[in-house]
Amino acid sequence: METTAAEEVTGICRDLLRIDTTNTGDQSTTVGERVAAEYVAAKLDEAGIGYELHESAPRRANLVARIPGADRSRGALLVHGHLDVVPADPREWSVDPFSGEEKDGYLWGRGAIDMKDFDAMILAVVRDWRRTGYVPPRDVVLAFTADEEAGMTYGSEFLVAKHRDLLDGCTEAIGEVGGYSYTVNDDLRLYLVQTAEKGLDWLRLHATGRPGHGSFIHDDNAVTTLAEAVARVGRHRFPMVVTPTVREFLLRVGDALGIDIDPEDPEVAIAKLGPIANLIGATIRNTANPTRLEAGYKDNVIPGRASATIDCRTLPGQAESFLAELREVIGPDVEIEHNHRQPAVETEFGGPLVEAMGAALRAEDPGARTVPYLMSGGTDAKAFATLGIRCFGFAPLRLPPDLNFAALFHGIDERVPVEGLKFGVRVLDRLLRNS
Ligand SMILES: [Zn+2]
Questions:
Q1: 402 partner at 20 to 30 Å CA-CA among 168, 197, 223, 279?
Q2: Distance from the CA of 54 to the center of ligand 1, in angstroms?
Q3: How far is the CA of 115 from the centre of ligand 1 (A)?
Q4: pLDDT in tens, 99-117
Q5: Rounded Cα gap, residues 393 and 390, in angstroms
Q6: Confidence tier at 272 by pLDDT (50, 70, 90)
Q7: How far is the CA of 341 from the centre of ligand 1 (A)?
Q8: pLDDT above 80: residue 193
């Protein structure tokens, strides 16, 4: 009997989970991505699918493949997944995080939902196409990336900067984080499709003063100046802003739950949403959280300089007004330096691809209803969107109603339901065939 994608996906996911692709953020200890990329390459080789593998630095491997479609004049669809994972401490887990163990209906391991599950679905689907001679309606470009978990410099940003030609003609993209279910009741599941991501701005604040002896009267202390600014930032609450994605989310979720929601008053609306409120809490305002402090080198010396890091997350279209407001809060005496900046992205929840997502889900789950959402974190979509590609988070998974999915991201005992994987492969296959 011929193997199907749904039969193959679990094995591929298990294989990927067993490859330790921990991204420590440090070149000398981030070594597994190359092994995983070679595994992907072997799976594509077996299917006769050509690819290019590029290292951005030793062992930081990225792989791109293009599957020609029936109508090559149409824009291509980029389907992407990162191969790296965040670290896992085996002492905290109930299984070895790199064993790919299967128990209680789940595959366990670091990366099971972030995002080797989707990597496996992609491979299972395209291998099935080659076995059966299927040609998709338009070009499908696959990208397996390094370094999503530590800034994307060696992964998607590298591909966009150095191998843009491999992504030629891509007009839309699907990747993480979206397409998973939230159960309302037996007959209704919301599938959250990510259409927007907050921007990121890691700021360094620097205060300078007159260095001096700690025993003197001293009125120009850099530590004091910095501490006052940091405290003001930490206590400041930015105003609510309802972006188009959040408005659409609130209206659709309100409709699905049968409750009245006023998008102009999002806090009251969000409070009515129960557990789903966690998903949306940070998406109605900009945030600025102090995360690091640095000053001084001796107990009795007043340093001439003090620095702090502020982790800022901005809503689509808000980066400039946010900075102006933050500048006011910080005051004129502290210098601001941009350490790392990634703009927010947002696309409309509409068009044939979005309709095809809904149709593919409903074909496999008659109780499915799609809802767009804004994510407060970031993904490789940030890099791909700079090429003008419309990016969606859609890595389909039907989840058991009682599973705390959000807690599994970078969490202990990360695991994916085996039935969910098989469901995902069927939905992805349908979507790609009808897009
Ligand atoms: Zn991820």
A1: 197
A2: 20
A3: 5
A4: 999 999 999 999 999 999 9
A5: 10
A6: confident
A7: 19
A8: yes
Q: Distance from the CA of 347 to the center of ligand 1, in angstroms?
A: 19
CA of 379 to the centre of ligand 1 (A): 6
* Contacts of residue 147, Cβ cutoff 8 Å, sequence gap at least 6: 23, 30, 33, 56, 60, 82, 84, 153, 154, 155, 156, 158
145 φ/ψ angles, rounded to the nearest 5 degrees: -115, 160
- Whole-number pLDDT of residue 275: 67
Q: Note residues around ion ligand 1 (Cβ under 5 angstroms).
A: 114-115, 176
The whole-number average pLDDT for the span 353-366 is 98
Q: How far is the CA of 119 from the centre of ligand 1 (A)?
A: 11
- Helices and strands (H and E) in the chain: how many: 13, 19
d(CA 61, CA 36) in angstroms, rounded, equals 9
Question: What's the rounded mean pLDDT across residues 205-216?
Answer: 95
Q: How far is the CA of 236 from the centre of ligand 1 (A)?
A: 30
Is the pLDDT at 413 greater than 70, yes or no? yes
Residue-averaged pLDDT of the chain = 94
Q: Which residue's entry shows tokens 């959040």?
A: 246
Tokens representing 15?
Answer: 């294989």
